[in-house]
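ok posting inputs for the arginine job
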Amino acid sequence: MSNTNNQILKNTNAQILDEFNASIMFDKELYAQDIKGSIAHSQMLCEQGVLTSDEQTAIETGLLQVKEEIESGNFEFTLATEDIHMAVESRLTEIIGEPGKKLHTARSRNDQVATDFRLYVQDKSVQLKNQLKQLVATFVDVASKHTTTLIPGMTHLQHAQPLNFGYHMLAYANMFKRDFERFESSYERNNYSPLGSAALAGTPHNIDRFSTCEKLGFSSPTNHAMDTVSDRDFALEILFNISTCMMHISRISEELILWSSYEFQFVRMSDEYATTSSIMPQKKNPDVPELLRGKTGRVYGNLISLLTVMKGLPLAYNKDTQEDKEGVFDSVKTAEISISILNEVIKTMIVNTDKMEDACKIGHLTATDLADFLVQKQNMAFRTAYYITKDVVAKANELGKDISELNIDEIRSANEELKDVSEEIVMYLDLRNSMNSRNSYGGTSSIQTENQIKYFEQWLEKN
Ligand code: ARG
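and the output
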């Protein structure tokens, strides 16, 4: 575009372009990190003899005043100062004059934004990790009350084998523990200080990156300035970690929706988390888990969006990466609220143990146990046992009973091969016995479930 055209555009569209270019409307979220980074930078510059101690004191005091103004709502954010970095620096200079103009020595907004954003992501990773720990504790707590409560285990959403409800809850404890670990390992992988990378190639000033790194709580400085200013992997990681966590949240939400439906009635959610219909007064809708499930979509969107922004970007910094922040802020807020609400929903849900147990009596859940019994105790070939079991299922259907409810005479009359079968078989068809027979490591028996609860209790204590 020629200069004249550019000028025309500026005159007519100046406001629009300022708005288009600016990030202050959203990156003000990073004010605390920006000020923290600037204080560390000024202290380091003073240690290195680049700033006098008077200048540094003025800068630090001024920065704290800016922080106070922002926190008390007395700071005016304007488009004139494009982003949070310029906003803080220009207000600082208004307050303290000349020394304020020295703060930007030996840095660039490129390493500044990388530092601020990384500090934010690190802080939030720790916070989300702590929230996930609470959530794991809640699932473990519910599990510990239900190690003998029967619930039909499903595959393909069809009744498969009896489980205990505690075991089912522990599946979620495991998912959220892995999420916890993902935030933890991302934190470790990304705990490097970008500050001092400057625009893309380092700086001729005599800086000490190890000093600012230590002041900011990173484990060491990043070791390649150009990579650092163009890298947003840390932001992608938190977006992925949140997406996976929300995917898990959407799965328990879906189960809560099903379980609280009239057809299941396995749980009742506290009235706070269900709303009434504006037209059907008898209804209680599971809006909260539906929203948790729905919010998973926006979080995935934020991940795909940043992956797409980063795709094919040439090195090093490009303004495209200004698009990195809003999605991360949105995903973090969504995850914070979602985890805390889910935690309350699980804590307050009422478990209808009778309905769960009744549901186990539909669908002949212990049919496999019968076949296994015939193989193990009668030395029968599996395929033969399979067909005999089919006859027992047919018998139960004929009597309008579940296989677990048959007495020994009914079983014996189902097939010629069973006419002398040992009475022990009745026990094999019993639902609770069937659940407890799956005592292999990681299986659903009450003993295994209790072992897993102990494991989680130790984990919760250690973390
Ligand atoms: N607001 C910018 C961002 O969010 C800060 C970095 C700008 N750097 C630059 N050279 N224009 O990415």
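notes: The CA atoms of residues 322 and 357 lie 55 Å apart. The chain has three domains: 15-105, 110-357, 363-435+442-450.
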